[in-house]
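User: I'm putting together a small comparison set for a docking exercise, and I want a reference complex before I start. The sequence is below, and the ligand is NAP. Could you produce the 3D structure with the ligand included, as structure tokens?
Assistant: Of course. I'll restate your input first, then give the structure tokens for the complex.
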Amino acid sequence: MKIGILGAGIVAQTIAKHVLPFGHQITLSNSRGPDSLAELVKELGPGAIAGTPQQATQQDLVVLAVNWPSVQAALFVVPNWKGRLLVDATNRVAGYTPLTLGDISGRTSSEIVADLAPGAKVVKAFNSVPMSWISDFSSSKPRTVLFLSGDDNDAKRSVAELVEQVGLTAVDLGSLAVGGRLQQLGGPLAGIRLTFTERFAL
Ligand SMILES: NC(=O)c1ccc[n+]([C@@H]2O[C@H](COP(=O)([O-])OP(=O)(O)OC[C@H]3O[C@@H](n4cnc5c(N)ncnc54)[C@H](OP(=O)(O)O)[C@@H]3O)[C@@H](O)[C@H]2O)c1
């Protein structure tokens, strides 16, 4: 799969390290241009590419991995999101000192993201676990639960397949309105760290 990421920080790099060993191609981007990412993609190794945000959004699957105040600017690089698969990994942190949350007027943060990317098939994923919790990239890593939500079942299936392929366990929580609320920052499943030590077959 060709994956593009809006962002090249902690989330982008963690996802890259999970998917690269499986032969996926990943284009990272930031607001400063591809040259600023040359060293990073060299470190990540074959399959990692430094691109512009526009190039990142032309891939099969696009991950939104910027901080909340940059969401609108990052999404506006695409004039038409129609039919594109967009994974929303963001949390609505407006500031860290002190911790303040962005206003979402009673909706879920991924519904706001979906409004800013009209026509995109938005799947919320990767937001609810600290990246340090899924930073074991060995093949013997514990199977960690990764929640996802969205309104398009095919899109959720594609993301779930990728998540399962890299050794995590995808749990579908439902729509952006219902599941998104459970897994978003402040929701009951945000920050929950679940791993399987053993799987039981019925
Ligand atoms: N860290 C975690 O453990 C974690 C876990 C789950 C979810 N999250 C959420 O995931 C999002 C990203 O977190 P992070 O920790 O990866 O943040 P980060 O390390 O600060 O990375 C943010 C990245 O976004 C880039 N960026 C800024 N504006 C951009 C734009 N307009 N277009 C493209 N890229 C742009 C930044 O690069 P430049 O500034 O150089 O442009 C940077 O590479 C946040 O919403 C966070 O709440 C974080």
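The longest strand covers residues 143-150. Residues 6-12, 29-32, 53, 65-68, 70, 73-74, 89-91, 93, 126-127, 130-131 surround NAP (CB under 6 Å).
User: Thanks, that's exactly what I needed.
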